[in-house]
Amino acid sequence: MLLWYCNVILGYCNVIVGYCNVILWYCNVLLWCWIVIVGYCNVILWYCNVLLWCWIVIVGYWLVYSLVSLPSFWICLLYIYIRLYETTLNMPAKLLYHHVRQSLFCFVLSVLSHVVKQDSSHTIGVEFGSRVVMVAGKTVKLQIWDTAGQERFRSVTRSYYRGAAGALLVYDITSRETYNSLTNWLTDARTLASPNIVIILCGNKKDLEADREVTFLEASRFAQENEVMFLETSALTGENVEEAFLKCGRTIINKIESGELDPERMGSGIQYGDTTVRQLRQSPQAGSEQGRDQCNC
């Protein structure tokens, strides 16, 4: 009898051991499944790392290419401050340039000193210069702010638009890319500057006729469609460089004299004395006739 009980107990023990073996087997299966899942996750993670590094390399090459091959294009903003003493109009005009290459920087130098330096270095940050000229028999002081024109400085350049009364949009006639960028710069000028801003489109490098990519007719049509004035210039020879600034100044003065531009409006970009431009605004017709006689805008 005792032996029978021992066999029963031993049988139960064998059953328990069998269940334990089954449980252990399932645990081994789960462990192997977990190892396989972790392995697949590691493979996926490795592929993700490879894709990430490929993306970093592509973006890096794109940034380097963008910084090296930016279009030879800059925009100059013209801030006009008018002071009229009797028959002389002292008008400090603040001009803003940002450019990319040496040939464009010559545009600034030629209007400042009538001297073209072909070995001029690129602008880093902001440079300042000034020059006094005569516009419609009035003394005008041009204050020129020359800034870098790379795309990475665009957010800084946009801060100079406020209060601009005039702007010169300059593109390279030998570079189709600079011409295609005009729409963006024109939108910035009209969005961020004063509503009555005077805009002149300038096609630079007129002396390189053999390398021309943008025709005069195409650019003049663009100017006509966007209601801006247009001329072609050459920073190397100085052709029409000073005329671009004089034309912008004459147009602004004519707008003030005709009453189209209100210098008292905040943000107009115009500063004047108590007895100055008010006298012009009281006789707009006379001022307009004088402006037309001296300006072919």
Automatic annotation (TrEMBL):
This is Ras-related protein Rab-4. Belongs to the small GTPase superfamily. Rab family. PANTHER family: DRAB11-RELATED. The gene is GPR65. The chain crosses the membrane at residues 23-45, 52-82. It holds the Pfam family Ras. One of its GO terms (molecular function) is GTP binding. The keyword Nucleotide-binding applies. Keywords: GTP-binding, Membrane, Nucleotide-binding, Transmembrane, Transmembrane helix.
